[in-house]
Amino acid sequence: MTNLNSIFRAGFVRRWHSNPDLCHTVDRIDGHSARVARIILALHPSPSVALIRAALTHDDGESVTGDMSAVCKDQNPELAAMMSVAEEEARCALWGWQPHMSGRDRNWLKFADRLDAYMWAAHHAPHIMDRDDWPELLAWINETADVLGVDMKEIGT
Fold first, then answer.
1. What pLDDT, in 10s, does the model give residues 112-134?
2. Which helix (H) or strand (E) holds 14?
């Protein structure tokens, strides 16, 4: 049975809390997930229902684990894998289903997720975009956009 209160509360998890340059921005996963879905709706020629559902719920499992920074995930791959399993189980428990997406849909979700992170950081802390891993992320976004057929010049990023 769906617990609407738990679903409501899942969106309150804060993003960027461990990033000294962005922790002040108070981004929550409900806003992030909505932006990811909006990016997909704006750029994908014909998104599947499964992709939109996944975009709207992809981080809800963090209501159990919290948001783990990308740096921590990169430096602790075994911990990141365990957290990923725990998050998937928590998301499935919240919603009662797992999204069944094609490989292309998974690529779109990852692309939109990372594009939102890049755009958030560029908006809130433009002075950091030439350091840390932001230039590499932008390169990945542009490469993935080419694979997905998204013209980044047309969308003004």
1. 999 999 999 999 999 999 998 99
2. strand 14-15
Give me the domains of the chain, ranges plus CATH numbers.
Answer: 4-155 (1.10.3210.10)
Q: Which long-range contacts (CB under 8 A, 24 or more apart) does 96-99 make?
A: 96/1, 96/2, 99/50, 99/51, 99/53, 99/54, 99/57
The pair of structure tokens assigned to 98 is 């797992």
DSSP helix/strand/coil, 57: helix
pLDDT classification of 66: cutoffs 50, 70, 90: confident
| pLDDT of 157 higher than 90 | no
The two three-digit tokens of residue 75, written as one number: 């430096």
Amino acid at 74: D
CA atoms within 13 A on the CB side of 137: 23
95 alpha-carbon distance from chain centroid? 18
Q: Which letter does DSSP use for residue 55 in this model?
A: H
Whole-prediction pTM value?
0.92
Which of 89, 96, 22 lies closest to 62 in space, CA to CA? 89
